[in-house]
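Re: the 412-residue chain
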Amino acid sequence: MNRRDLWGKIALGTFLLAGLLGTLFLAAWNNTSIPKLDLIGEISGMEDKSDERKIAFSYRNGDEQITGYAKIKVQGSSSLAYEKKNYTIKLYSDKDCDEKMRVDLGWGEQNKYCLKANWVDRTHARNLVTANLAAQAQEKYGLLTQTPNNGCVDGFPVEVYANGRFLGLYTWNIPKDAWMFAMDEDDPNHLVLSGQGWEEANYFRAMPGFDTWSMEVGEESEEVQEKLDRLFDFVMNSSDQEFRDHFSEYLNLDAAVNYYVISDIAYLHDNLGKNMLLATYDGQVWYLCLYDLDTSWGTTNDGLGLVDYQDRLLDLSANLLLERMEQCFPRELAQRYFELRAELFSDEHILAEFDRFREEIPRLTFAKEILRWGEGTIPSRADLPGFDYDQIREYLSSVGPRLDAKYTALAG
């Protein structure tokens, strides 16, 4: 064999090997062990919630495959400005989106879901892990057991594609909707309202309106306004003795105590006014419910830095309801804190829950996410503190002893 033939065979072999390796790489790239959703249709340029589009979809999870149609629109508030969007998606069996498709993804057959981009938290874990920890605490005290996740959001990681092109790592979540609370939308006493900002009314320091508290379940009406006014008047104007003696006529105490303590442990500074949910089944007694928990464990709400948790604890007194709870129920708060820290909110259990969630996401999926969204409107997203599990460990070791001291003092 002459030298030219030898080099030709080597070149051919190299070419074939490269092709084989490329094929194997592409196969691995497209077959990670994680659910996949392909959105088929035009979704680019969606910036406003009023822009709802009809598309087709294909969902695959192992051997399970679901195809159909969907109405899709962007979701969120401040997150609307980010390049990678959140979406609300409603499923249908026909192209015109007239016949609802209900699919069971672990919470019973439902039509409406939410796709969360988790733009400020590359771990994609903070929102769902914190919600599941809260749900475990709710379960422990028998709260909202009729709901899919004890009145908390739930979800799972999913790769999302747009017309076959990788759009990003998302989490497929329960929406802020009636079925999250096992509510009947036709029952006028089944109501959920969400705090919309950081106004005085969001902190129970002024009377509420539908501009500061938006309806998530139910319709705006004079009757709903009266129910809200009754609650706010009690919080704002009752004496300390009345507040303690009649609290359970207005608010579920176990749910409120959980809200206070979990907000304190996880530093949920974005949930003291905005993102607080008020839910009621009888129009009289309200449950405080945690929602949108990606700003947690020490990060700022834009993901660009850390709060000053090295030197101070979360100031819950900004919210009058929470401030009055500390004044009137200090021992109840202390007892709940130490009960939760002994088990469900111990450092070990918190970190184990984060590790469990991380193991659900293949490393290759994280790599694909970095390649797709590694740079964007936020400089050096790879450096965001919210991306770092070590920061969560450091947060716990820093804050834990000072929280212990605070609740020891509350216990008297």
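Residues 15-29, 376-380 have pLDDT under 50 and may be disordered.
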